[in-house]
């Protein structure tokens, strides 16, 4: 029987049977077992698509095999295979299955006779193999007289990889091109910033549309591919939609994610157990200053050139840098009974330090949070005695020795500016701040709302104090700004006189009855109003209740 080159296109089970029938010489027992094993591998393989990136899931210690057959037409045809591990190192190899001995390729008229002693087991040979987690590309030439088998194995754990086979090596690439020198240069380091630069990708210079650079910042290590980075983030216990950073699609972010869009740059900050992981896409700019980093911290930086149309990417050689140590903060001395107003810049993430030397055994610290969120840490002679996030008005009573040194460190926990008033005093029985009720919330009564009036209520204390009510007409789109930007330390002096409604005194020794109500009249129908209540103590320092927004009825 003479075998034609149609064998390349036969179903695999027929191909195997044909190959077995046409062995020139019966193999020995060992070679026969090896031969049958190789045929079995081909039989239990999947076809690998040409010109398409294929995602392959691997189970631990279980090999997975794919094969491909190239188009007929040329005696020699180039092809390339790119394998991208997305997690742990893998093993992969390329095996070639040659036609049975003595069978000629089409157009090959001078094929020499193959020795009859050639064993069937030699028809399968390994032409490439690799172990590791780097992106690896194999480029070869096919003689059309062979069928190729790719074998993949993960010995560490279940994982996934991507594989790209192409026989069209002349009309462009799926993956964006890297420059001749793919290193990332660190050109500037500060306390909270690192400036990076890299050489342009040829893909950006040739096709600027649909191509952009994306930067990944983390505190763990560099990643050799974008899919490896995304896998690591997902394994930290969170869901990461990768195309949010890459294609700017309006995905709904997870609670652990923060998306920041400014100056045409999209940043995604993922809160994971090993610190922050940031993805920033900056278009075709090849320099970038990473902001808001922590001082004296080592960060790893990876740049990926991404094709937004195909979602394919190529990785520059990652780098790392350590931010500079924070200089010793300037220390402000606290004096008995003197209020210090501290404003903190959230973007710089710096500490503000206050120091107090005790002249009495018992010391009282008072903090009035004016705006934002602030973390306070109090140490006595170098040992921490109190630490918490401030909320509203907070008192700390501490007992020590004469001449103890107390240090107070304040830090904003959000990116916007925060501010706080601080008081240290040994005399708690004569506080500058008023006695506070259990809650500083203002309540409104929906059933008592009319088109022209609103009824509100708030809690008082056992101490007779002065309460002033203010109102302000606002629009729907102003609510969030008014509530977020409110300075809880500012008093009525910052308000317009026309916003004042009334002032009243009241108290009740029975805290269960220490509540007052007020009906504010003369309002407009279907209108939003912002209501504020200010509480004044003996010293005249005000405390502002939480603002309340109420809308009058449209129809009555």
How is the main sheet built? 7 strands, antiparallel
CATH architecture of the largest domain: Sandwich
On the 0 to 100 scale, the average pLDDT is: 79
Counting DSSP H or I runs of 4 or more residues, the number of helices is 6
Count of folded domains: 4
User: What would you report as the Rg, rounded to the nearest angstrom?
Assistant: 36 Å
Separation of the first and last Cα atoms? 100 Å
DSSP, total strands = 36
Unreliable stretches (pLDDT < 50, length at least 5) are 1-40, 104-122, 238-264
CATH topology of the largest domain: Immunoglobulin-like
Q: What is the CATH C level class of the largest domain, in words?
A: Mainly Beta
Compact description:
The protein is mainly beta and 556 residues long. The protein is 10% helix and 42% strand.
Main traits of this protein?
single chain, 556 residues, mainly beta, Immunoglobulin-like, Jelly Rolls, disordered N terminus, signal, NDNF_N, Protein NDNF, Ig-like_fold, glycoprotein
Describe the overall structure.
It comes from Emberiza fucata. One of its GO terms (molecular function) is heparin binding. One of its GO terms (biological process) is nervous system development. Residues 176-313, 434-542 form the Fibronectin type-III domain. Helix content is 10%, strand content 42%. With 556 residues, it is mainly beta. The chain folds into four domains: 45-99 and 123-166, Mitogen Ypm (Jelly Rolls); 175-238 and 276-327, Immunoglobulins (Immunoglobulin-like); 331-425, Jelly Rolls, CATH 2.60.120; 442-551, Immunoglobulins (Immunoglobulin-like), CATH 2.60.40.10. Strands 12, 13, 14, 15, 17, 18 and 19 form a seven-stranded antiparallel sheet that branches. Strands 1-3-8-5-6 form a five-stranded mixed sheet. It is elongated and about 105 Å long. It starts with 11 loop residues before the first helix and ends in a 5-residue tail after the last strand.
